[in-house]
Amino acid sequence: MIELGIVIAITVALTELAKKTLGVTSRYTPLIALLIGIALTSLSFGGFDTEVLLNGIVAGLSASGLYSGGKTAIGK
């Protein structure tokens, strides 16, 4: 469970980095977060199966939710 929390935090950071450096628009941010979450989860859990895929989807969606929720709370 701790690993998934770390993957979510790294996914948020890498998604923000992609927005700042690569110029990714906000429209594609959830897709980027989803792909990064799946990739990091497969690397973290050492393989690729259904459980890893679902954990990656959860990590990506959680990361995009954390980002948009934080953005709303700050008021940007």
The tally of helices reads 3
Largest sheet: none
Low-confidence stretches: none
Shape: globular
Instruction: Encode the helix/strand succession as letters.
Output: HHH
| Rg (CA only) | 12 Å
- Give the oligomeric state: single chain
The residue-averaged pLDDT reads: 84
Using DSSP, what is the number of strands?
Answer: 0
Overall structural class, as computed from helix and strand content, comes to mainly alpha
The number of domains: 1
Helix content: over 70%
Q: Which percent range describes the beta-strand content?
A: under 5%
What would your notes on this structure say?
The chain is an all-alpha fold and 76 residues long. The protein has one domain. Helix content is 82%, strand content 0%. The chain has three helices and no strands. The protein has helices at residues 2-22, 29-44, 50-74. Helix 1 crosses helix 3 (50-74). The protein is globular. 24% of the residues are buried. The model has no long low-confidence stretch (mean pLDDT 84).
Features:
globular, mainly alpha, 3 helices, 76 residues
What is the gist of this entry?
The protein has three helices and no strands.
Secondary structure layout plus pairing:
Layout lengths: L1 H21 L6 H16 L5 H25 L2
